[in-house]
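User: I need a structural model of Transcriptional regulator, contains XRE-family HTH domain from Streptomyces indicus for a docking pre-check later this week. Nothing fancy, just the predicted structure tokens so I can convert them on my end. Input:
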Amino acid sequence: MRGLGDHLSIGERIAFYRKRRGYTQEVLAGLVGRSTDWLAKAETGRRKPPRIDMLAELARILRVPLSDLVGQSILVEDEKQRDDIPAIRDALMSPRRLSRLLFGPEADVQLPTPAPSAVRVEKSWDDYQGGRLGSVIAALPALLQVAQELEDRAARREADRRDCWAVSARTHHLAATTLAKIGESDLSWLAAERAMQAADSSDDPLVLASAARSGTHALLANGRYEAATRT
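Assistant: Understood. Predicted structure tokens for Transcriptional regulator, contains XRE-family HTH domain:
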């Protein structure tokens, strides 16, 4: 886990949050009206840190508090110094999410079963409750992929349909809550929507009530306080 003790430079923090958002240097530089060379030098310390007004603009575009760029926040990474937020984004925005008919698995593909998948999700919930966010973030890409495969299974097998949807709801609830906690508000909302959709499909009032908490966390992360209270 990387944090305050690492004394990351402002440039390194800009690069960290840029990669987390999935932006290339060219894209971010264009968004703030600067050249790619200017941003590359700022990130690597080959030029002075940007002025405070430019830092504020970068923070706005990267959707993080200004204090995050000047060194007052904790950067969440796993023990191998790897940022898995882009992998979580890829799992949430897989083309298979658009259409099961167009992008779904072949008929003879072996899909996971809900019981062992539920155990893995609860292990990550234990990590979340224990404050081991790096472990949760590292596990989420694979958990989200399994959740999607469980939804595919639910479409084929009526016998365990409800259980499949319930595990998917629990997985996306974990994703939404974790992403909200680390400031990824947009991804948190996307995960919360998925959690609620899966909970609806489970036909289980308890699953739905639990998943509604993910919506609350996502709304709070996006500054929608009245909507969060209503939810």
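Before docking, keep this in mind: Residues 4-70 form a domain with the 434 Repressor (Amino-terminal Domain) fold (CATH 1.10.260.40).
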